[in-house]
C-alpha cells in the first residue's frame, strides 16, 4: 500500500504537495489510473486514483474512505525529556508511533541534557513512521514544556511517573487499565530530581517501575508504550 499524508484533504479531488508529488511520480514511478491511499492524520483512510501524474502537482480522485481506521481504544500521552543525542529521541518517536501513541511532549526537567528541539524535524520523523506503519492517526507533537507546567495541567486519565529512586513502586503492567487514557512521564539520563517526583505525586501521579533493569530514557519510553499497548489487546 502506497500511503501519503494529506492533512488538508477536502472534496473528491486533491492535489498532493510538491514533496509527496515527487515521491509518488519520480520515486515510486506511479502513473495515471494507479491506486494510492491517503490519510488525513485524524483517522480517515482514503482510497484514491491518480488522474494527473505531475511530479510537482500530482492530482488524485478519492473513490473510497474509511473513518476511524485503526482507532485504538485508548490514548497514550508520553512526556519525555529529550536525549542529548537527538537521534535517540527520534528513534523513540519512530518506534512509539509504530506501536501506538496519541501525543508526545518534549519535557524540560532540572537534569535535562537537551533544552531545545527542532519541532519540524521531530514532526517529520513521526509522519514518516505513520506512513510506514499504515496508521490514519498522526500523533500530536507539542512544543517543549517545563515539567511543572505539564504536571499541573489538567489531564483526564491515569497519570504515571517512572523514576529510578528506591521505594515501593508497582510495575506499569500491574496497574495499567484497559481502555483508559494514560499520561506517562519519562525523565532524562540523570533522572527526575526528588523535588520533581514530589511535585508529580502532589498532582496525583502514581510512581511506577518499568522493570529491574536501568533503562536509557528512550528505551524506557518505548517499553512504557509497549506495555500500555499490550495491556489493551
UniProtKB/TrEMBL annotation:
A GO term from the CC aspect: cytoplasm
This enzyme's EC code(s): 2.1.1.193
Keyword check for Cytoplasm: yes
Reactions the enzyme catalyzes: uridine(1498) in 16S rRNA + S-adenosyl-L-methionine = N(3)-methyluridine(1498) in 16S rRNA + S-adenosyl-L-homocysteine + H(+)
Positions of transmembrane segments: none
Domain (Ribosomal RNA small subunit methyltransferase E PUA-like): residue spans on this chain: 20-61
Protein location: Cytoplasm
Main location: cytoplasm
Family: Belongs to the RNA methyltransferase RsmE family.
Protein name per UniProt: Ribosomal RNA small subunit methyltransferase E
Organism listed in the record: Ancylomarina longa
